[in-house]
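INTERNAL AUDIT FORM
Audit reference: QA-55
Scope: verify that the stored structure record matches its stored sequence.
Auditor: D.O.
Record contents follow.
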Amino acid sequence: MAALDELRARLNDLQEELQKHKTNAKTFRERIDKMTAEVVDSNPYSRLMALQRMGIVKEYERIRDKSVAVVGVGGVGSVTADMLTRCGIGKLILFDYDKVELANMNRLFFTPDQAGLSKVEAAAKTLTFINPDVSIETHNYNITTVESFDKFLNTIQTGGVLPNTPVDLVLSCVDNFEARMAINTACNELGLNWFESGVSENAVSGHIQFIRPGDTACFACAPPLVVAENIDEKTLKREGVCAASLPTTMGITAGMLVQNTLKYLLGFGEVSDYLGYNAMNDFFPKMTLKPNTQCDDRHCQERQKEFNAKPKVEEVQEEAADEGPLHETNDWGIELVSDSAPEESTVAASSSTVAAGLKLAYEAPVKDDELNVAPSAAAGPEVDLDDLMAQMKSM
């Protein structure tokens, strides 16, 4: 009887403790819901809202109306999701199909107790604890399979904060070309802007690329060699060799990705079309790739036609005042030309001149219809058949 009374008392204590936790969670959610532009110590987002007071961002609260899909919750993706959650993004959709392993402990996000959980499940628990006001949606499947690709397409098409609206941005944080091509195909079909990101195998360089279908080169416009030659990348796996990983390079790449995501979503600063990072000499190259008119992705070509059909907004530039000649006399006609001006390039989009510090792994082959060579020019001068036979007999 005494044991039963003791058990009942313990049960009552647990119920009271549970109720206390629920009350604390409710209070915390109410505090988050009352987030305003006022910068006060009691506001958990005061440092972020200060951007608005300082004139960097017009309305920081708009971040709560944005939905972002993060594909790949690995070294870059997990940190990206963490940063967006701390920034108060409205909705975060996570895609991955791997599990957390002890080898992932060199990342800035996962903990040993999460080993064995799916990455999206582990990420959702951590992110909800960090900021319960962010809506977290998880999808544990491989987007490159036929049945999963359709689900992925539908999710990013209807995954906005408002029902049946597309996500505002897709962030690719995957580590293989097959998944990148799947994301590229989906975003080209739906006309969605997205960021591609990656870190090199030796972990000392990374990059981000902003892809706007029709306006900039898609991932299929200037594909890596492994994609262009239809090589099965699974055959490139070297036995006993795995890619290196540094939490520093992962964090820097994720930081560049989220920084440009915030600039795009909230409309401040300049969003980089391509931004690289070389850790060996702390070099950050920038460049822009124009779309390839001969892209193999038909949706990319359709988006290009739509983009070109839009009326272009002409930028009005003020003419510089004529300050007169620097020297009144110039008997020799000497002119100074800036060597920093970009040269006109006639190279195709797939072979675009890259920025300093970058190089193409290969030159894409030129398609037959791009060779504007007349058949008569290629065949050479016409030769009479009788003269040719006479020459052969005299030999």
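Auditor finding: record pair retrieved intact. The radius of gyration is 29 Å.
Action required: none
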